[in-house]
Amino acid sequence: MRIDENAAVEKLSPLKPLTDEQAQLVKHVLEFASQHLQHHDTPAVFTIYGDAGTGKSVVLSHLFNQLQTAARTDKSSSFYGTNNRFLVNHPEILKVYKEIAGHYRHLLKKDFERPTSFINQLDKHNGHVDVVVIDEAHLLLSKPDHYNNFYHENQLAEVIKRAQVVILVFDRYQVLRMKSLWTPERLQKLTNQYPHEDYQLKHQFRMTASDELLNWMNRLTDGEVTALPKNARDHYDFRVYDDAEKMRQAIVQRNQEVGLSRVLSTSGYPSTLDGGKHYIKEGRFKMPWDQYNYTSTPWAEIPKTINEVGSIYTCQGFDLNYAGIIIGPIISQAKDSQRLIVHLNRYTDVESFKRRKDLTDPKEIKRLEDRMIMNALNVILKRGVRGTYLYAHDPRLRHTLMTMYDRIK
């Protein structure tokens, strides 16, 4: 049985049922916003923390739908007549929200914007809004980026200046580029300047995997290869392959059966934004990287992308049924230990690690760059709702993973 290929819209639908915790959180955040709209002159900030798959985006979707419904229909509400925006700095996810807006009468496509567009448009008219909701706030720019027409120092700081209430979600493990460098400490240094509240979402909703397997993935991306838990395959199709082509064939089979199954990879293979195809080769395996997606449909929901390898830039924020993960040449296992080594000289996205004026310590820079590489692995490891298949380029790491996997099969 194939699932609906419009899965991203379904996942973020304002009609998707919430848990009691999520519903209470939506209610509390709206009360926070109402209070600060009515009784305070200074901006206020509400931050929702949570790892991948903890339901952050669906909370925001419900919240914004309720906010806009009240703003446009409920004369008794403190939100009536308010001017509000929803921002996300990820073009693929923005497509999904704009698609959702086409299905709900009180959500308009113009309500959803990229942060830079929002800032620059308001600047033209010295504008100000009431409530701003920000999904994937860990992708906000924290330095100028002239390529993207952002000329200020920090997108979140600029958004707060232009709004009365800002509501955002943040995941420290999804920080991937120096121009979007955030840590909880850097975020709190900014938000602590204003009236603020925080909330931590902890329950994992995306994957049917055990907590032990999820913890194993977290330890792996912290740089340590530990023994696979015995329940790694309980209610979850977890596999390790020593042949990338066999893994690809299995993913194609899953895609034929249930849809939304793709091969993904870390960096470390040739890749240039020149419009041409660049291939990942592993033995018999040969597939091109994902191409820039000019359509309004998310990359994973385009049928032909079964013949491409997805990157962090096309899969972040999206669910797959099954994900075949290639741990590329950028990560290897140390010769005499279970520790992982990051090879920054094999990183092919030259834009990611451009230097910042506020970072001068070489050790700190190396630590942050290594962390971002591991964050990218963490993100792609957590795409598969029903199953995750692994293949490692590094022979030592591949052998270690296969040995561990053979023990639990």
Model description:
With 409 residues, the chain is of the alpha/beta class. The chain folds into two domains: 7-201, P-loop containing nucleotide triphosphate hydrolases (Rossmann fold), CATH 3.40.50; 211-408, no CATH class. The chain has helices at residues 7-11, 20-39, 56-73, 91-101, 115-125, 155-161, 184-191, 211-221, 244-258, 312-315, 362-381, 395-408, and strands at 44-50, 84-88, 112-113, 129-135, 163-170, 196-201, 237-240, 261-265, 279-282, 285-288, 309-310, 320-327, 331-333, 340-342, 384-392. The strands form four sheets. The chain has a six-stranded parallel sheet. A five-stranded parallel sheet has the order 7-15-12-8-11, sandwiched between helices. Strand 13 (331-333) and strand 14 form a beta hairpin. Helix 8 packs antiparallel against helix 11 (362-381). The longest helix is centred in the first third of the chain and has 20 residues, at 20-39. Residues 1-5 have low confidence and may be disordered.
The largest sheet, given as strand count, sense and whether it forms a barrel, is: 6 strands, parallel
**Global outline:** globular
Q: Please tally the β strands and state the result.
A: 15
Structural class: alpha/beta
Radius of gyration over C-alpha positions, nearest whole angstrom: 21 Å
What is the rounded distance between the termini? 26 Å
Multimeric state of these chains?
single chain
* Order of secondary-structure elements: HHEHEHEHEHEHEHEHEEEEHEEEHEH
Q: Which regions have little confidence, pLDDT < 50, spanning 5+ residues?
A: 1-5
Count of the separate structural domains: 2
Query: Helix count?
Result: 12
